[in-house]
Amino acid sequence: MKNRTIKRNMVLLVLAVLFTLFICGSASAADSSTTGGNGTGSDLNQSLQNSTNSALQLSSQNNSHVVDPIIGVKVGYEYSSDSINPEITVKDSKGAKINVTKTYDMAFKGYRLSFDYDGAVNGTKFNVTVSAPGYTTQSQMIGVFLNSANATDTNLYGSATFNMNATAAYKLGREVTKKADQLLNFSKADKVLVITTAGLAYLNGTTTEDCLEGILNGSGGKISYGQGNLLTFQSTRTDPLDFCFVVMNGNSLTAAFFKNGSLAPAYKGTFSAINQTLWEKTIVPTLGDEAFGYVSLANAWKEGLSTDILRQAAYHGHVCLGTISGQAMISLLLKYYPPGVYGDDGELEATSYRAVSVPGNSDDDAFIYSLDLTSGKRSWVGYETSDSGAADNMVGFIRWCASTNTGTLIIMAFDEDKVVQAYKNKTGLIAYSGIASELKFNAWLINKLENDPDSLVDILYVFNITAEVHNNLTGGVDSKNVVCDALGLDMDYILGLGLTNLVDQKNATNYTTGNLTEDQIKQIGIDAANKAIELFAADGITLEKDDPNLTVFTSAGYVRVNEQVMDMVFDGIYDVLGSRLSRATLLSQHNARFNPLFFQFTLVQNGTYISKTLTYDPETGNFTVKNESSCIIDQVLPYDPPYDVLMAWLWHNHVCGGSTTGYLITDYVYDNFPISEDEQYSYVSTNDICRDDILSYLLGVSAGSGTYYNQRMESAGSEVGIISIYDSKTKTRRVAILNLTSPKFSGGNSYENYINLYKVLQKYDDWNSPECLAELATIPNLISGPSITRTVDTWVTEEEWQAIISGGNGSLNALEYIKSLPVRTQADLISLLNQNQNGTHNQNGTQNNNGTAVVEAPDGVQGNSQGISSSGTGSATGSVGDSGPTVSAATQTEVTTSDEGTPSAGGNAYEVSKAAPNSEESDLNYALIALGAVLCGGLLVVGFFKGSILGFLRK
After folding, report:
1. 932 — phi, psi (to 5°)?
2. Which of 28, 51, 246, 644 sits most deeply, having the most CB atoms within 10 A of its CB?
3. What are phi and psi of 788, to 5 degrees?
4. What are phi and psi of 504, to 5 degrees?
5. Are 663 and 697 in contact (CB under 8 A)?
6. For all residues of the chain together, what is the average pLDDT?
7. What is the DSSP secondary structure assignment for residue 165, as one 8-state letter?
8. Which whole-number Å values give the CA distances from 728 to 383, 613, 681, 733, in the listed order?
9. Do the strands 380-382 and 353-357 form a parallel or antiparallel pair, or are they unpaired?
């Protein structure tokens, strides 16, 4: 230890001496400071200097020349292949933002910033900030100085070079793509696909859209949103950052899978020639719980499944009979019972259809996704109603006519046994005899979906219904108010009404199928972008490429035009404007697939937004233009919402007051109910307003996976939902009723108020910590913060859980039923389960006198920010947001397989390790890195102070 300390001290001493000598040398080698330039301009391009001098002489003769600061900025990127127009802002020493004119000069290879500033003198400093997608924002104080070589030049000049460093997430995306390309050779492949958890999953406490940006920029054009070959799982904050790259050569699929941020592949091998041994011994243990998701999505992509359905399957988690059958239900619904006009009052939550179903089968996610029937818009209600004769392969669609106050209830189902038997009769194969057989079955289903969807789904009943029936099934025709407890898909009630089944009276609607090529679809995006440039130019506004203040909203990605997917418009818009999802500047708004294709271009300028909307006419190929919004999510853009809440608002398809508390509940759940890899969230909405779309999307729960239920209870009040955490390792389940009191504000813009609150609360696991309370006190307009408490927090048996998701027990609804249960700890439940296994059925537990476990919250924020409350007894502790080890290439080994998928010799596992913090290597590496940084920085200083940059700007 002593020798190591001596060596370290010697290295640091040498470093200090070198640093001192270098600084002295730098000071004598240049006559400029790091805050600006005062160069002579001796190396200025002569022709530019002559033209500049002529202009100065002319302005001097006219006595019209004024003193203007001009700052030159050169921007370099860590990845030299990146060509990004950066955002550059200038502020004065007091922090006031200055309007600047930014132009790029090809000869200078940098940006020229010119602006007016009263009072600027020789040496005045300005704060210049440069930002770019995928890179860490940088700022420098830059001084401006007179041109000492030209007394007639009264302008002030400064310059700086910004060498931009990639964010950790962007670097991970670039490096994992580079590694995958080395392994799979993208350039030789017919097609490339990537499936990832990046986006909503967190790295270092923040969302990971930069990973997606890195993948796109690093793929050499092989991967893009327009091609539809970047699929993201519906992730949670705590999910690992996994990446699966797949190349297709003919009918062969080869994959490289990277686990939890590692740059060493955990698996490299076949995804198409999978036998059962490879599946069970290698792929499942290596890829984990999502193994079938990766493999089924890749094979469906190979079979040509439409990219919009691929995205829906990625949202759900995999491709299966339920996924395809749900899409077949949509085909039949649109064919036989096409959408009407729902309402005429402009209600945001209005949809052409509503649905009631039983969660737990993949079909639910299909129609909720592709028809925009989300629960937060009160378009879907569902819980366990199998006791009434319903099943999880059934759904009831309601097509409602507001003008007549009547509707049609269409009940469909897919019969798994019937479909499997039809497959066997046609092919002679058994559907579920192993992974290979299931993938073949999926391929057959995809073909059936495209060519014969009627064969996959049965329309069982068609009834004309009144408002009373609608109310009883859904909780209310009026989506804003619950008038009764929703029955859901209660077949006993429905069939007991004695209505006439009109199923035999259906008539088919014929749709025109378009024949646009991918290039023609891309051209629609190009034309829309150019039209937007023209519209803004008419208002005197020039749109810049890669402008982070310009956001394009579109229904593309969800809607079809003449049954054609419109994905390629994404690439057209990107080519012209640089807008895309990973930059949060090209946002696909959730829509039903039969809705029109629109583009809304919104520019945030001086804290307000300006929007232009174009709606595509497929008959003429022209656009209908209006100078206003169609997608009102633009109202939150001036306040820089977090990426994840913005994505959730897109899922909800608009912003509104009702949705704003959804993010607060999400944050509370992550902080107070952190989950491990063996645990999973489930959620039951109880009074169902817009916030349920936000929290269900961000918690990664869904009806199709059987983890989200929507009951709509008239008596719910402030008891907004039931959170459940299931531990698959111990087979135990925790349940809590969440009670919400919303924050109060004294005025201002409500969206700005909430976004300011989100940004503070997101930083803290404990909302009542002194640090959090102190920061909350600084939020403008906040009178009292949100209070989230737990009416009950207990552990339940699976029998009790089934009663909860069935709507309660006997006369008790789900909320009252939970309150009637004993209050248990996890240890109590495990003991109870053990007793039951031994034949003892005595349920031990404790409860208060009225059978309700009341969890009191501590005092909230005092003074200006009262009522913040997030704690309760029995809550688990832990940190959220660390989604894995730091990316490192150190001591990594691979599990690599041949093309046939057999493990290669020598590879057992992968690991990411770090050098020991006290090792000699660590100390020496640190010193060498620091020395390298000083040398590089010094060289930059010397080069920076040469007069070429400043001289060039004097024109």
Report:
1. -60, -40
2. 246
3. -120, 120
4. -80, -5
5. no
6. 84
7. P
8. 22, 49, 11, 9
9. parallel
10 burial level (CB within 10 Å; 0-12, 13-18, 19+):
exposed
Type and span of the H or E element at 756: helix 750-761
Report the alpha-carbon distance of residue 841 to residue 846 in Å, rounded: 16
Q: What is d(CA 390, CA 395) in angstroms, rounded to the nearest whole number?
A: 9
Nearest to 356 by CA among 412, 427, 285: 412
- pLDDT given at position 512: 86
Banded model confidence at residue 152, pLDDT cuts 50, 70, 90: confident
Q: Could you give the CA distance from residue 767 to residue 771 in angstroms, rounded to a whole number?
A: 9
Is the distance from CB of 309 to CB of 284 less than 8 angstroms?
Answer: no
Predicted local confidence at residue 341, as pLDDT: 55
- As a whole number of angstroms, the distance between CA 722 and CA 805 comes to 10
Tokens representing 83 are 């060509």
- What is the rounded CA–CA span in Å between residue 719 and residue 715? 9
**Contact partners, residue 931, CB within 8 Å, separation at least 6:** 15, 18
Please give the share of the chain, as a percent, with pLDDT higher than 70: 80
Helix (H) or strand (E) holding 11: helix 2-29
Least confident residue range of 343-347, 572-576, 657-661: 343-347
At 103, which amino acid appears? T
- For the residues of 187-225, what is the DSSP string, one character each? GGSSEEEEEE-TTTSEETTEE-HHHHHHHHHHTTTSS-T
Q: Is the confidence at residue 496, as pLDDT, over 70?
A: yes
Q: What sign has the CA pseudo-torsion 344, 349, 350, 351? A: positive
Q: Report the DSSP pairing between strands 206-207 and 202-203.
A: antiparallel
pLDDT digits (tens, 9 = 90+) for 848-898: 333 333 222 223 332 233 333 333 333 332 322 333 333 322 223 334 444
> In whole angstroms, what separates CA 918 from the centre of its chain?
39
Confidence check: pLDDT of 942 > 50: no
The runs of H, that is alpha helices, within 550-612 are 569-577
| H-helix or E-strand spanning residue 58 | helix 46-61
Chain position carrying tokens 């608002």: 649
The reported pLDDT for the residue numbered 836 is 84
Type and span of the H or E element at 4: helix 2-29
Tens digit of pLDDT for each residue in 819-836?
999 999 999 999 999 988
Say if residues 334 and 562 touch (Cβ distance below 8 Å): no
Q: Where are the alpha helices (DSSP H) in 673-714?
A: 691-699
Q: Distances in Å between the alpha carbon of 788 and those of 658, 664, 715, 735, 907? A: 16, 9, 18, 15, 49
Residue 577: exposure state from Cβ atoms within 10 A (0-12, 13-18, ≥19):
buried
Helix (H) or strand (E) holding 104: strand 101-105
Distance of alpha carbon 814 from alpha carbon 816, whole angstroms: 6
The answer, yes or no, to whether residue 908 has pLDDT greater than 50, is no
Contact 172, 211 (CB under 8 A): yes
